[in-house]
């Protein structure tokens, strides 16, 4: 039998222990904050019926769905001309299921299917992988985790304020202290589009304005012009482009510029309310920047939107984003489910933290101390020590084979185990063991109680 | 547009918050014990190349693999007679990837691909879903989690002893106190097959003997006879069937019966060594029963095998199983990677715990206290309290809308929030708030410090 060298599908990744510990640090940090704010977990199946997924992500999205071949004799009901029609016409005949493309559509599906059992407002978080048949490239994968939290069934702006609080707490707990939360309100963008006389072209306006950071104001104006915005309209944008200063000042200026727009006013009131809540919650507006050019791609946002970037990293794309929507579930026939949600980009956060080198050097999850294996007699003593350490909830292990000490040390080193405990013949006689700090090389002779005390702190 | 009622694929499940909290309790308990014993996490992609998966699970397993349709124009290279050949011949032309069927093959693939970077002994655990295109039925799903831990690259029997320790600790931490860990050694089964003169028929013997609990001794003998075992051979089994008593006694009897078998002897020595290690580790043999009829299906086990059952549940199938194998990776061309592993059946454990009604009533993860929302003035005060509670790491939330108190109470009830905090006009005046225990109905007027003290314990 010829044995092929095994490989994994392109765009997918194995996460070995070292990467996993770092990823778990990020995911646990996020999960703990979600739960601290009353969000509870939901998990949905990896496979969804294609009837649920198709048509929800645009024509391009439909192309990027991974489709599962029907089980058994999938050709049994296929006719000659289904095949003649090519891949596109054959697909629905031989595939009924696809892999989850995001967590929003499965969430909407779940809410619709369980609408009579759910107590609203429904605060759920969901941390699961999604799959996209995208062309793999640096930083873009075919399988990656999403971390979403949404609350549906309430219009209260306390939700928006708490989302900002959660973001701040996650960033602080990750050690990511230099970041900016940009906020805006879709109502303002619509009001501005109306004011400049380009009613109904909000989508085009959002797409163009969103790129201002990357391509600059001039190119944005060109794009708008190319998309049929009149010269006058573009000129009328000037005072908005020129707005600057702290959030309150921006809101004051906007209030004058949009004084005739009910929608604009409502957008301003919402932002003011969120800032007020932030103050009442003792957090205030630090890290928070009102940015009128923030638009975010997804068309379903209708209220406040936000986006987070790390400031000192070479990775400049956003690491968190979200916003309020009017209608999560109408696509499945349930109207009036409004809410607000946001999502952490785990892969981006991972890359930023690597880039800034801010991962903690020790991870909760990994072994705290390795007991060396000298010979059968000391091994037996070591087993007793092992049990006592574990009773004290110290993460520990013993090297299973009595191989050369150098090899056992290398094992501790590679596994980043911070301490090594030596229990040899002499140590047993004296009832004191050698504890070596693998980082500093420092070595101390300590009694068992001292060791347990030290390691369990 | 006609809107179809959404559904999920048969054999798959949504896990809403209540189920998720229970599942997380199980998974966290297992994960914590794995990590306490020095096992570190690994995650592999949901999709594997079919070249990796095919042929690893027998012909039936190949049928049960979920296959992913190639992206893009998957028919472009397909010729007329590939289609004429039917589903079977067409499949490899239009599908290159499949969903993970278990965690063992991806682990073996990972070890082979990373053999030069891994420090052996390699202790890894993996908790991820797997997919099987099985006919769905009660207790059998098309998507379910597996929880595996394996250590490869050592023959030390301390690993087997520690696995038994881990099982005991997981069961204790789950509150599953009445359970039996059955152990056996494949070497004994081979030695017995040889002794009765049926060399090479160990597989048949194992399959038959494994069913003795379900079908009884007589039917097992019938099955052996039907599979060509001689009358004399079956008669020679009698002394083995008759073995009884505590583990040590069984081993003593076996020693006599198998005195001429080097393999049998080696199996006995291994079991004795594991029992000795258990004693040295302070755990001993409670819960552990040597059972010669335990065989376990998987053919790759070569040493000690084990299986766990809950004793007082109506669910009698095993909730944990594992064993030692000689060769994990030879199928991918890497010889000599031996190890021992075991796996918790999360769905089974969940069912057993539901059946015995032993899930803890309160979950770490869920909100500890809901702050009621009376009116804008008390709302502002409540926001301050909320912040103080969160600073003390108390999981809490405020009802976002000032709706009827009854509705807010129902929310707390449905979400199983154990306490509700009322901050009304009077309470603000007096600086004391009403804390209600939702289980007992008891209500106390307490100062903020008292409340924080009470809830953060």
Please describe what this structure looks like.
The structure is a homodimer of 457-residue chains. With 457 residues, chain A is of the alpha+beta class. The first copy, chain A, folds into two domains: 340 residues, BirA Bifunctional Protein, domain 2; 91 residues, Anticodon-binding domain (Rossmann fold), CATH 3.40.50.800. The first copy, chain A, is 43% helix and 18% strand. In chain A, helix 1 runs antiparallel to helix 7, helix 7 crosses helix 14 and helix 8 runs antiparallel to helix 14. The longest helix of chain A has 20 residues. Chain A is globular, with a radius of gyration of 28 Å.
Short descriptors:
BirA Bifunctional Protein, domain 2; five-stranded mixed beta sheet; 16 strands; homodimer; 43% helix; 2 domains; eight-stranded mixed beta sheet; alpha+beta; 457 residues; Rossmann fold
CATH architecture of the largest domain in chain A: 2-Layer Sandwich
Q: Please name the fourth-level CATH homologous superfamily of the largest domain in chain A.
A: Bira Bifunctional Protein, Domain 2
Oligomer: homodimer
Give the DSSP E fraction of chain A (strand runs of 2 or more residues): 15-25%
Query: What do we call the CATH topology of the largest domain in chain A?
Result: BirA Bifunctional Protein, domain 2
Query: Which word captures the global form of chain A?
Result: globular
Total count of domains of chain A: 2
* Spatial gap, N to C terminus of chain A: 54 Å
The top level CATH class name of the largest domain in chain A: Alpha Beta
By helix and strand content of chain A, what is the structural category?
Answer: alpha+beta
How big is the Rg of chain A?
A: 28 Å
Number of strands of chain A: 16
Mean pLDDT of chain A: 94
């Amino acid at each position: 039998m010829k044995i092929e060298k095994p490989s994994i599908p392109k765009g997918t990744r194995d996460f070995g222990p070292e990467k996993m510990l770092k990823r778990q640090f990020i995911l646990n940090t996020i999960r703990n904050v979600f739960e601290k704010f009353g969000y509870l977990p939901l998990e949905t199946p990896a496979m969804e019926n294609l009837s649920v997924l198709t048509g929800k992500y645009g024509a391009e999205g439909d192309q990027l769905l991974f489709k599962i071949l029907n089980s058994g004799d999938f050709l049994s009901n296929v006719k000659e001309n289904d095949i003649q029609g090519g891949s596109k016409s054959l697909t629905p005949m031989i595939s009924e299921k696809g892999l989850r493309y995001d967590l929003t559509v499965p969430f909407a599906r779940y809410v619709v299917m369980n609408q009579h059992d759910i107590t609203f407002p429904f605060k759920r978080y969901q941390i699961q992988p999604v799959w996209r048949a995208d062309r793999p490239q640096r930083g873009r994968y075919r399988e990656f985790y999403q971390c979403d939290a949404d609350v549906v069934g309430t219009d209260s702006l306390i939700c928006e304020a708490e989302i900002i609080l959660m973001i701040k707490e996650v960033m602080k707990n990750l050690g990511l202290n230099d970041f900016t939360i940009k906020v805006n309100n879709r109502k303002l963008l619509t009001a501005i589009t109306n004011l400049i006389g380009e009613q109904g072209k909000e989508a085009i306006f959002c797409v163009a304005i969103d790129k201002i950071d990357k391509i600059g104001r001039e190119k944005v104006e060109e794009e708008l012009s190319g998309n049929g915005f009149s010269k006058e309209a573009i000129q009328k944008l000037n005072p908005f482009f020129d707005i600057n200063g702290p959030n309150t000042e921006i809101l004051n200026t906007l209030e004058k510029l949009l004084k005739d727009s009910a929608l604009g006013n409502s957008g301003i009131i919402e932002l003011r309310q969120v800032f007020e809540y932030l103050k009442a919650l003792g957090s205030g507006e630090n890290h928070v920047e009102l940015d009128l050019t923030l638009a975010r791609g997804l068309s379903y946002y209708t209220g406040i939107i936000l986006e987070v970037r790390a400031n000192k990293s070479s990775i400049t794309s956003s690491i968190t984003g979200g916003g309020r929507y009017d209608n999560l579930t109408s696509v499945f026939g349930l109207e009036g489910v409004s809410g607000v949600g946001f999502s952490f980009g785990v892969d981006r956060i991972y890359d930023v933290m690597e880039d800034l080198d801010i991962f903690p050097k020790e991870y909760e999850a990994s072994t705290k101390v390795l007991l060396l294996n000298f010979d059968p007699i000391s091994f037996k003593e070591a087993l007793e020590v092992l049990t006592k350490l574990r009773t004290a909830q110290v993460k520990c292990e013993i090297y299973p084979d009595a191989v050369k000490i150098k090899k056992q040390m290398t094992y501790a080193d590679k596994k980043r185990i911070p301490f090594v405990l030596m229990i040899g013949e002499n140590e047993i006689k004296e009832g004191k063991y050698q504890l070596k700090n693998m980082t500093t090389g420092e070595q101390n002779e300590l009694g068992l109680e001292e060791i347990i005390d030290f390691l369990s702190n």
